[in-house]
Amino acid sequence: MQGLKFKLLDLNKYEALVYEALVKLGKTGALEISRESGVPYGRIYDTLNTLADKGLIIVIPEKSKKFTAAPPEALEKIIDSKIKDITDLKEEIKKWKTIYTTTEEPIEIVKGKKNFYKIIKKMSTPKKYSYVIKFTSEVRPDWIRSTRDQLKKGIDIKNLVNYSEETKPNIKKWKKLVPQLKQRKFEIDHIVAHIVDDKEVFFALIESNITVFIKDAKFTKLMRKFFEAAWEKAEEKK
Questions:
Q1: Which residues of the chain fall below pLDDT 50?
Q2: Which of 128, 174, 210, 217 ranks highest by number of CB atoms within 10 Å?
Q3: pLDDT value of position 7
């Protein structure tokens, strides 16, 4: 028995080695047990005593004391007892799951450009849709790759973009690099937002340098409806 095996039986290393040696040797004395098991002779009697207390060896009171292993069924009883304990615990955990409530806060507010990008990375990968409101239409290789991959998977991606002389080059780059991307002109004043799968939304106030991340289905659905209403009225950019 090695590694976790003997630990699962509530045996330490020496106890496991001694019991295994006795199974092989049969009735024998402490010196021979030490040799066979590799347990130092100075630790043999302590180990034998603890095994006896656990009912795993039998002490034979002859002139020269001998020891023999209890039948392996004794180990099976330990295993059966542990299985029962684990089964009972699993049932208890099921009860806990029904009353457990998450302590995770649904809103996270951060400041700074670095934290803005961290929030973007925390957003879930879309399974159904990804609706974005862009102010600068920044072009980043990782965003291009993820947009292409999501479009290949049939994700509904729509971008409402702030259209100006400053942002026009970026918008054209997006269209060139991802031709199938849907973009429509939307009048935005220093605000960015991203809505994903009726699960979560973030919006960034650029001038205040603050980003708000909200994981709330009802709020996200409301933001989706606002986005869809704006999308219907927005001018398509080709």
A1: 3-4
A2: 174
A3: 73
| C-alpha span between 54 and 218 (Å, rounded) | 58
SS3 32: helix
pTM flag (> 0.90): no
φ, ψ for residue 77 (rounded to 5)? -65, -40
Residue type, 61: P
**Tokens standing for 115?**
């934290």
The closest alpha carbon to 118, from 109, 129, 105, 131, belongs to: 109
Task: Sketch out the chain's domains with CATH numbers.
Answer: 4-75 (1.10.10.10), 107-236 (3.30.870.10)
Structure tokens at 212: 């708000």
| pLDDT at residue number 99 | 77
Size of the chain in residues: 238
CA–CA separation, 188 vs 182, rounded Å? 17
Written as one string, the DSSP assignment of 46-85 is HHHHHHHHTTSEEEE-SSS-EEEEPPTHHHHHHHHHHHHH
Question: Are the beta carbons of 19 and 31 closer than 8 angstroms?
Answer: no
Place of tokens 């208890």: 92
DSSP 177-234: HSTT-EEEE---SSEEEEEETTTEEEEEETTTTEEEEE--HHHHHHHHHHHHHHHHHS
- How far is 219 from 107, CA to CA, in rounded Å? 11
- Under 8 Å between Cβ of 200 and 131: no
Residue 232 and residue 213 in contact, taking contact as beta carbons nearer than 8 Å = no
